[in-house]
Amino acid sequence: MATEWLSSKEAARRLGVSAATLYAYVSRGLLRSEGTNGQRERRYRADDVAQLKRRRDVGRKAESIAANALDFGTPVLESSLTLIESGRLFYRGHEATRLARNSSLEQVAQLLWECDDRPFAARNLPPLSATLRSAWQAASALPPVDACLVLLPAAARWDHPSWVEDRAAMLDTGARILRLLAAAVTGQPLSDRPVHEQVATAWNVPVEHAPLIRAALVLSADHEFNASAFAARVVASTGANLYASTIAGLVAINGPRHGGLTRRVASLLADLRQAGDIDAEVARRVRERTYIPGFGHQLYPDGDVRAVALFALMREFAAGAPELAFAERVAAAVEQQIDRKPNVDFATVVLERLLGLPADSALAIFLLGRTVGWIAHAIEQAAHGALIRPRARYTGPRPSA
């Protein structure tokens, strides 16, 4: 069956929106569009327009709310941690892009966890039991996420204070978990040094470029109810400790539609580097409807502010670097073809290549930063004291009489 396409004027009329709003829908990935014979005018898939109209017309009846409660963008829980509004990102009222310029991950943790620096005292390290030492050897050759998933249960087994439901004890546990994962990712001994310093030292990043690592960690700290944060909150709502919530977040972040998307971005950049003609290769992928990872975000119609901030810093610290120039050429080619700007996944992979970091470092940075957010969500959910247990809307065969 042939695909029906609509002009921008007709698509906007059916949706009852302006041309600017129509463009925003495309940027958010809600509509697909393509150019027409090299002209600026674009056309839009009629089935996308119809589906979006149905979603916007969903009533506010209880059944409709239940059926749509977990769709992207529909709020399901209250939180005072992170606000994404008008294309900007805030941690407890503080703009994340500003924090990225002058705050460490530990300072952002203090902001999100609502605490002072006591959890990050030098003495507060995970207990190095025999079980953890054995796990450390087993995890040494594993990728970052897998190494963390091996070490967390081993550390939790002997970290008895982690089961205390006192807020101060939970904060101390959160700091121990962050330090454990920093050691797991870098393959270095447990340390009380700031995470960005541990990472920069382990990966031989020059001191003058360490602020780039710090900024990427801060920009990854939280993003309200993304998949991994929601997974962490669900586990926390059962009364499980912070180790369990962090494990849930790690399992979710490894998926190729979440943090694992960085691997697909890295593969894209490698392929484009080999192809040579970036514009031609991107155009070919668009013609063949091949997914181009690392571009567009539903919550940022004008561009992911985290990527904008990280690119700005990379230009400041490494102006004229060939790897950065290459990435900007790729971004320009993709935006020309599909009207989408780079997101944080693309930006962190560019940082990985710019600094010559080990493979999968972009995901490692993302998981270390997001650990702070998972812990914040788990602490907040524990304070709520409610079990997260949605009801199912059954769509299977009805039982026979």
Notes on the protein architecture:
- The protein is mainly α.
- The protein is built from 19 helices and six strands.
- The strands form two sheets. It has a three-stranded antiparallel β-sheet. A three-stranded antiparallel β-sheet has the order 4-5-6.
- It is globular and about 65 Å long.
- About 1% of the residues have low confidence.
Question: Keywords for this structure?
Answer:
401 residues, mainly alpha, three-stranded antiparallel sheet
Main sheet properties: 3 strands, antiparallel
Instruction: Identify the overall geometry.
Output: globular
Secondary structure tally: strands: 6
* Helix count from the secondary structure assignment: 19
Lateral strand order in the biggest sheet: 1-3-2
Low-pLDDT residue intervals, each spanning 5 or more residues: 59-63
Percent of residues in helical segments? Answer: 55-70%
Q: What is the radius of gyration computed over CA atoms, rounded to a whole number of angstroms?
A: 23 Å
Report the portion of residues in β strands: 5-15%
Structural class: mainly alpha
Measured distance between first and last alpha carbons: 40 Å
Oligomeric category? single chain
Mean pLDDT reading:
89
The H/E string reads: EHHEEHHEEEHHHHHHHHHHHHHHH
